[in-house]
Amino acid sequence: MSRKRTVSILAAIACAAINSLSANELYSLKLGSWGKFIQPPVEIFVSGKPEKEMSDLIDLQEQSIKNVLNASLSLSEIQEYHLLVDKIQALKAAVDKERVPDNYIPYNATLYEKYQSRMTARFQILDKLKEQCSQTLSSSFTSTVGNINPENFESRIESVQQFSNLWSERTSKISDNGPDGRRKKANERFLGIVDIYISELRKLATDLTVARAVHSHYQEARQTHLLAWQEFVNKDLPVIQAYFEEIEERILPNSEGNYLITKQQMKSRLYASTQIGTYQVYFYLNKFRNKEHPLNLEPLN
């Protein structure tokens, strides 16, 4: 074989290797509020779509174990509460990013960034109005919003509403003429945006009510959920385990606990296999966050 031909083949092999490497992506498996229940390492199974009967069994297993585990969580540990905290932080950041700690790690980075981007676009006009309205108005609003947290959320909403009412009254007394008139108009525009901000806060208050209701439901039905899970374990869990034992394509975490997954594998069905207590259980890792559990793959590269 000629030297030119050999070089050409080696180049082709190198190119194929590079393309193969670029087709892989590194993922982190987020465990969310279930981290304290899950025993590592978590293995990921790669499979085609199961038959409907098996798919229904896996869905039932996810729902059943979800009910049991969530009944063991406090309000601040359930998924609905974590997602609410993300929204509160994102809404604060839309007004003043310095009000959100630099080390804050969102529960769901994708949803957090989308919500923050939407809120920032809606309220960025406040930055311009700060230069035109009463300085005390803008600084007091930023301070009031910055003190909002999940623990005092509902009372702080009322504080923001009282702030808006107070400044509306003060602004109404400002002269309409000259520089004062321009400042008055800027105040009025600023307060109009504040009212929209308050409406967003009230939407999150509804989310908090929902989170409390969900938590109460888990607590009240805990014994029922435990009995349902035990019945599932005895009857159906062995069937699911036998199904996954037949799957040969599996992905183990690397030394840092992350997963190298090809684009082709991402097009398949991915299931996380983990031990919870004495049971081996399986969770479908949707391309988006699965509503039945907090486990979620997030890309790192």
Structure characterization notes:
The protein is an alpha+beta fold and 301 residues long. It is built from eleven helices and seven strands. It has a four-stranded antiparallel β-sheet. α2 (52-70) runs antiparallel to α9 and α7 runs antiparallel to α8 (178-220). The radius of gyration is 26 Å and the shape is elongated. It starts with a helix and ends with a strand. Residues 11-22 have low confidence and may be disordered.
Tell me the β content. 5-15%
Report the strand count.
Answer: 7
| Mean pLDDT figure | 87
Main sheet: strands, sense, barrel: 4 strands, antiparallel
| CA-atom Rg in angstroms | 26 Å
The best one-word shape is elongated
Order of helices and strands: HEEHHHHHHHHHEEHEEE
| Contiguous uncertain segments of 5+ residues | 11-22
Q: How many helices in DSSP terms?
A: 11
* Side-by-side strand order of the widest sheet: 3-2-5-6
Helix-strand makeup class: alpha+beta
Give the quaternary arrangement of the chains.
single chain
Q: How far is it from the N-terminal to the C-terminal residue, by CA? A: 40 Å
The residue fraction in helices comes out at: 55-70%
